[in-house]
């Protein structure tokens, strides 16, 4: 954080206040500021939990983000009377103007790159909290759960980016003893631009469960079908919308999911929600059975009708099956039509 603060300090006006410094930092380094906000919120939640459970007070720095910023030694120095006097004495308006323009240009490019990275990382995530996620989080803590079962649960949870899920992954990053799972939690938080601190490995002799590894690479549609028929937690999912579409229309489907998420609706799309099982090289009868189950779990179907989807046998199969379920079917041909049909 030292370098960003120093960069802001170098382009401050002749006379500045603590709030000018803060606002310039927030403007030029929005993502770094967001990390500070999340950091302080995290420590506040930890402090509240410790007090509630063990009546322990003041373990963590629970200042607001602004208070924390002003408590940073470097910031204190920049706001000191001596530093402000020196800045005013050496102030060169034309030089500062050039420096500020260069910094603004640099930050615009760098902030866009950060934004681009986050958009790419979150491309297939949904910003809703369906009720079934609570079932998954509760199942994670059941007795004798295997590392593979934990991985399956986290693979589902990381398809969502909400405060509830972020909080859950933070707890895993703090306390999960299996190294692979803990690193997965860390990577989720890091990739999605959230505050996270990598924990040290637990000391002492390693237990088997701490070093166990698992993978979903060999999973097939048949495995998911078996989970669904055996009343695994997969069978407890509920979706608001089943999106019937052609994979050639991916971009529009992503936009449709975003629109429904803004209305707090959870969407089922096979290549985002079941991609670890419904691999193209294993397409077959079990794929159909899984899609049937997912349609049964969905409240309505939205068909994105395009030149691509009208030629798809899979879309025809989905429409026919959903009609037999006697559930609502809506047909849209564009994002604009969807917005008009489902506007609040």
TrEMBL record:
<dbReference type="GO" id="GO:0007165">
    <property type="term" value="P:signal transduction"/>
</dbReference>
<protein>
    <recommendedName>
        <fullName>TIR domain-containing protein</fullName>
    </recommendedName>
</protein>
<dbReference type="InterPro" id="IPR015032">
    <property type="entry name" value="ThsB__TIR-like_domain"/>
</dbReference>
<dbReference type="Pfam" id="PF08937">
    <property type="entry name" value="ThsB_TIR"/>
</dbReference>
<feature type="domain" description="TIR">
    <location>
        <begin position="237"/>
        <end position="344"/>
    </location>
</feature>
<dbReference type="InterPro" id="IPR000157">
    <property type="entry name" value="TIR_dom"/>
</dbReference>
<dbReference type="InterPro" id="IPR035897">
    <property type="entry name" value="Toll_tir_struct_dom_sf"/>
</dbReference>
């Amino acid at each position: 954080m030292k370098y960003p603060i120093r960069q802001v300090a170098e382009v401050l006006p002749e006379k500045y206040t603590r709030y000018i410094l803060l606002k310039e930092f927030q403007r030029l380094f929005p993502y770094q500021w967001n990390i500070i906000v999340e950091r302080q919120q995290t420590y506040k939640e930890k402090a509240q939990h410790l007090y509630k459970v063990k009546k322990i007070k003041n373990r963590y720095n629970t200042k607001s983000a602004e208070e924390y910023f002003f408590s940073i030694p470097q910031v204190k120095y920049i706001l000191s009377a001596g530093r402000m006097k020196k800045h005013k004495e050496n102030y060169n308006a034309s030089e500062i103007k050039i420096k500020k323009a260069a910094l603004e240009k640099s930050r615009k490019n760098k902030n866009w790159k950060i934004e681009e990275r986050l958009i790419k990382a979150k491309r297939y995530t949904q910003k809703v909290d369906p009720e079934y996620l609570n079932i998954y989080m509760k199942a994670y803590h059941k007795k004798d759960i295997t590392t593979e079962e934990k991985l399956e649960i986290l693979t589902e949870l990381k398809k969502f980016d909400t405060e509830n899920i972020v909080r859950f992954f933070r707890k895993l990053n703090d306390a999960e003893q299996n190294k692979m799972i803990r690193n997965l939690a860390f990577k989720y938080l890091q990739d999605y631009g959230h505050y996270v601190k990598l924990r040290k490995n637990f000391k002492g002799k390693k237990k088997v469960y701490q070093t166990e590894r698992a993978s979903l690479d060999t999973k097939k549609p048949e495995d998911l079908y078996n989970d669904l028929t055996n009343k695994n937690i997969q069978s407890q999912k509920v979706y608001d919308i089943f999106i019937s579409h052609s994979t050639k229309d991916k971009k529009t489907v992503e936009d449709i999911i975003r629109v429904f998420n803004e209305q707090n609706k959870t969407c089922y799309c096979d290549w985002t929600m079941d991609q670890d099982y419904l691999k193209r090289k294993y397409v077959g009868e079990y794929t159909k059975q899984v899609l049937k189950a997912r349609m049964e779990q969905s409240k309505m179907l939205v068909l994105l009708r395009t030149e691509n989807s009208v030629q798809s046998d899979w879309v025809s199969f989905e429409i026919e099956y959903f009609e037999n379920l006697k559930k609502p079917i809506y047909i849209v041909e564009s994002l604009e039509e969807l917005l008009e049909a489902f506007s609040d």
